[in-house]
Each structure stands twice: as structure tokens, then as C-alpha cells.
Amino acid sequence: QVQLVESGGGLVQAGGSLRLSCAASGRAFSSYAMGWFRQAPGKEREFVATITATGTATTYADRVKGRFTISRDNAKNTVYLQMNMLNPEDTAVYYCAVRRSVSGSSFPHHYDYWGQGTQVTVSF
Question: How many Cα atoms are found within 13 Å in the side-chain-facing hemisphere of 108?
Fold first, then answer.
């Protein structure tokens, strides 16, 4: 069992930045790929970014590429999402997730554990 706790969400003006963190329990964190997803009201959950277990490879959704950066610190059992140049379309609840594989994925159903989510609101 893996438990995830996200933090770092909040209200920010367009053009601003936020850094999300996701702390994981368990000793196998460094063996698992991690992902960030988001869900806006009335919309399906969508892929944002993923990182391999070792942190050597990352993949991003097109709409965040060049603005968001996913990283991880396996010594701290934590994955991060640095979000720059935020715009109102980025407003959503952001979730981190664990995939019990070394390789990441953009599909939500490939993930085994989810955090409770953290709200990100970007104002005009």
C-alpha cells in the first residue's frame, strides 16, 4: 500500500508559478514511476506529466510542455511539479499517482495509487 499526499496548490495570477509536491509512503518509491494528472470541473481527468522510477526520463502533455517540469527526489520519497507561466486553463485539481512499474504512462488506468488532490486556481 502506498499513500500519497499532495501540497503546494493555491491561487495565483496568470503568468505566475507554483510548485506542487507529492510525498509518498513506503520503501518501494524509487522502484515506481510517478505521474501528475489534473481534473477541471465538468471535464475528464487528463494527463499532465510522468517520470520514470529513476528520474531519467520524463514525458509531458503538449499543453504544458515547456512550462511545467516534473522531478523527483527518491531520498525524500517526493515528486514535484514546477508550474511556470500559468494561465486560467490550468485551473484544476491536481493529482499525483504511483504506477508500480519503472516506466511512466499517460493513461490514468495504468496507475495504482492516487493522492487526494490539491486545488490550483489561476486568475486572469
Answer: 13
| Nearest residue to 81 (alpha-carbon basis) of 110, 54, 49 | 49
DSSP string, the chain: ---EEEE--EEEETT--EEEEEEE-STTGGGSEEEEEEE-TTS--EEEEEE-TTSS-EEE-TTTTTTEEEEEETTTTEEEEEE-S--GGG-EEEEEEEESSSS--S-GGG--EE---EEEEEE-
Task: Show the cell assigned to 60.
Answer: 509531458
pLDDT of residue 27: 80
Mean residue pLDDT of the chain comes to: 97
pLDDT tens figures, 33-89:
999 999 999 999 999 999 999 999 999 999 999 999 999 999 999 999 999 999 999
